Amino acid sequence: MGMTITEKILAVHAGKEKVRPGEIVQVRPDLLMTNDISGPIAVDVFKSMGAARVFDPEKVVIVLDHFTPNKDVKAAKSSTKMREFARSQGIVHFYDAGFGIEHVVLPELGLVRPGDLVIGGDSHTVTYGALGAFATGVGSTDLAGAMALGEIWLKVPETIRFEFTGKPSRWIGGKDLILLAIGRIGVSGALYCAMEFGGEAIANLGMDGRFTMCNMAIEAGAKAGIVEPDEKTLAWLNGIRDDISSQTIGLLHSDEDCAYKSVIRFDVSDLEPQVAVPHLPSNVRPVSELKDVEIHQVVIGSCTNGRISDLRAAAEILRGRKVNKWVRTLIVPGSQRVYRQALQEGLVDVFIDSGAIVAAPTCGPCFGGHTGVLDEGERCVSTTNRNFLGRMGHEKSEVYLSGPYVAAASAIAGRIAHPEEV
Amino acid sequence: MEVSGRVWKFGDNVDTDLIIPGQYLTIQDPIELGKHCMEGADRDFASKIKPGDIVVAGHNFGCGSSREHAPLALKSCGVGAVIAASFARIFFRNAINIGLLVLECEEAYRRTNPQDEMLVQPEFGVIKNLTTGEEFRAAPYPPLVAGIVQAGGLVPYVRMRLQGQEK
Ligand code: SF4
């Protein structure tokens, strides 16, 4: 019997010919990643393990993105601790406050290649699956152990294949497809599994949309999200680093006779934009059912939808229009590179003209850390990934998750709106 | 090692934002974290529980972020064990790594009431409901994981391995 792409990547990194779901393997990751949340604890644990040096200073990436630019003195101390660690360990890939959000930054710097195995101290590490890599999140102690030993144990997950067929309308992006899937299977529908996305609609989806989809695999409980690499993947990578071609990397695919746990099919031809209503990412409704929901804030950004395509989508709607006077509209580019690109394309002018605010790249609003924290009773349409109770602030605030088109249209309308309404 | 205490029962999908809200993530001191444990689900949880008390919950316990603050908060506020129908995988790993006892057992979840007295014997995977007299078996740990549990968590485990490398 054949293997899925996930099984193949794990087999290679475990030094085995074959692995089977359920098997526990020791693997050597190509890259480890941490930030200013999981990092400070990982550093303490690393020391308490009696470790002196990280296994490879080129393979540990540190991005300070959550409470940065430093929100308060406590946050400043976390940052200082990570900076000192990075310096003393000679960490090559250290990115300080404002550089960007880890899951936007790592791919755009070309640090992740198809077939790689990446372990990150953050649940949305699953994002890199869009490149045909196996990437999963762990906590600080796991990360510390991996930094010390250069290896970690993993259970080989079963794979659920998600087939998207049909040609969706212009308002549909990766966010709508992944919300559709999570709505169908629920927040634990892919627990411990890898979600493999494929089919015509994925082949036609750009890389940014694929990042969005893999990013939210964790919201269905998955261990990883993955898209088999194709010409689009290669073309995207070629734009970033020049040492990549189909010769220099193995483009892995799932075998025809591999064993999926199940195959779930969606026809997305007539799909309406999707919105997840409070307080679970699986409470998904078509946007037309939510038109009476008044809102107070819109956030467009995060590791889910803070890439250039997302800002282009938002700008398409906001161009020449004004956001509602009573809706704070925050646009947070996912990285400095995205920010500059948006500037060069004139998108930042569009945003400012519309009355929106453009903030420095940060995780801030996404997890209620800073920059756009919600008050009691406030409602926000956000392109982020979680609408858990209190996620963006007060426990009696509400978060509605959508793609950038719906978020921008809602900012103008002052209530949840379909992009065709504005 | 045995753990016994009163049961605090929760439903499905208890996420990490309920266990320790995002605003407390700059806190690294376990004792401080413990004071806010489960605050999103039950504001007074930390002040009500006694050391050894047991959290019993439904499916997908600990879903959401990878914050280790969540199992740390549970451990340091005195929770003796978490028994759930199923766990989110990062939470499960984190708990094993920091030495918070976690056991998977759907039966125990379904047949236990809040405030029941419970006894857990992790070596045998045995869960006893002392109030009803029922006994349950938890799923066994895979060997590699059992090794980490036996060492007392990942810190002593890695320390042992690093010392082995030096020799
Ligand atoms: S943007 Fe949000 S989900 Fe993404 S890494 Fe930051 S806090 Fe986590």
TrEMBL record, chain A:
Give the residues the record marks as binding [4Fe-4S] cluster. 303, 363, 366
User: From what superkingdom does this record's organism come?
Assistant: Bacteria
| Segments forming a coiled coil | none
Q: Which GO terms describe its biological process?
A: L-leucine biosynthetic process
Residue ranges occupied by any Aconitase/3-isopropylmalate dehydratase large subunit alpha/beta/alpha domain in the UniProt entry: 7-291
Q: Which GO terms describe its molecular function?
A: 3-isopropylmalate dehydratase activity; 4 iron, 4 sulfur cluster binding; metal ion binding
Which transformation does this protein catalyse, written as a reaction? (2R,3S)-3-isopropylmalate = (2S)-2-isopropylmalate
InterPro entries hit by this protein:
Acnase/IPM_dHydase_lsu_aba_1/3, Acoase/IPM_deHydtase_lsu_aba, Aconitase_4Fe-4S_BS, Aconitase_4Fe-4S_dom, HAcnase/IPMdehydase_lsu_prok, Homoacnase/IPMdehydase_lsu, IPM_dehydratase_rel_enz, IPMI_cat
**Pathway assigned to this chain's UniProt record:** Amino-acid biosynthesis; L-leucine biosynthesis; L-leucine from 3-methyl-2-oxobutanoate: step 2/4
Keyword terms, alphabetized: 4Fe-4S, Amino-acid biosynthesis, Branched-chain amino acid biosynthesis, Iron, Iron-sulfur, Leucine biosynthesis, Lyase, Metal-binding
Per the entry, which co-factors are needed? [4Fe-4S] cluster
User: Could you give the cofactor binding note from the entry?
Assistant: Binds 1 [4Fe-4S] cluster per subunit.
The task this protein performs is described as: Catalyzes the isomerization between 2-isopropylmalate and 3-isopropylmalate, via the formation of 2-isopropylmaleate.
How the protein assembles, per its UniProt entry? Heterodimer of LeuC and LeuD.
Q: What PANTHER family does the entry give?
A: 3-ISOPROPYLMALATE DEHYDRATASE LARGE SUBUNIT 2, HOMOACONITASE, MITOCHONDRIAL-RELATED
Family in the record: Belongs to the aconitase/IPM isomerase family. LeuC type 2 subfamily.
> Which protein, by its recorded name, is this?
3-isopropylmalate dehydratase large subunit
Organism, scientific name:
Candidatus Fermentithermobacillus carboniphilus
